[in-house]
Amino acid sequence: MRRYLILVAACWLAAAPAFALDMPVRKAGLWELKMTFEQPKLAAHVLKQCTDAATDKYLNSSFGGSAQQTCTKQEVHESDDTVVVNSVCSFAGMTTQSHAVITGSFDSAYKMEVTTRHLSGPRPPGLGQNGEHRMAVSAKWLGPCKPGQRPGDIIMPGGIKVNVLDMRKAMKGMAPEKPEH
């Protein structure tokens, strides 16, 4: 299970520069996300995610917002059904340059292609020879969330289900308490 949690976090962090901005909220319901990793070449992974407006905003701000990284450059160009994001961001002592192209509709289906280049700091494992990571996400709305699912649920390969909102609560509970003066 830990491997899948790392995968989910890595995917969100790779896509974070695109979502660090005020992106449109996806239609509430069950989304299927197929992630393919072109560099390094890894097997595709399919996740399903139950979401609503509040959860989508939380994911965008927590995994892509200033709470997680500092971006010295963020340029967004929008036209018709395409959003192009170019950014330079720092996270965990690393600086990366990202280029993301998002096409489609946040109501039915969209595609996102992200190229991230390592610029400085610790080199993450699995980068290509040129220090790049390329990932593509194809997302489609499947309909309402299934019975027993709630916003924040991510259903990973093998049927493993985690809830990002529960993870957030657990992380807050693990933080050391502030000493009283």
Report on the architecture of this protein.
This protein has 181 residues and is an alpha+beta fold. The protein has one domain (2-169). It has three helices and nine strands. The chain has helices at residues 2-19, 53-64, 164-174, and strands spanning 29-39, 42-51, 70-79, 82-91, 94-105, 109-120, 132-143, 153-155, 161-163. It has a nine-stranded antiparallel beta sheet with strand order 3-4-5-6-7-1-2-8-9. A hairpin with a 2-residue loop joins strand 3 (70-79) and strand 4 (82-91). Helix 1 (2-19) crosses helix 2 (53-64). The longest helix is centred in the first third of the chain and has 18 residues, at 2-19. The N and C termini lie far apart (40 Å).
Helix content: 10-25%
- The helix/strand order is HEEHEEEEEEEH
Figure out the total of helices. Answer: 3
Structural class: alpha+beta
Estimate what percentage of residues fall within beta strands: over 45%
Low-confidence stretches: 1-10, 175-181
Number of strands: 9
Taking the sheet with the most strands, its summary is: 9 strands, antiparallel
Strand order of the largest sheet: 3-4-5-6-7-1-2-8-9
Query: Mean pLDDT across all residues, rounded?
Result: 77
- Number of domain units: 1
What spatial form do the alpha-carbon principal axes imply? globular
Distance between the termini: 40 Å
Give a short synopsis of this structure.
The protein is α+β, with helices and mostly antiparallel strands and 181 residues long. It is 23% helix and 46% strand. It has one domain.
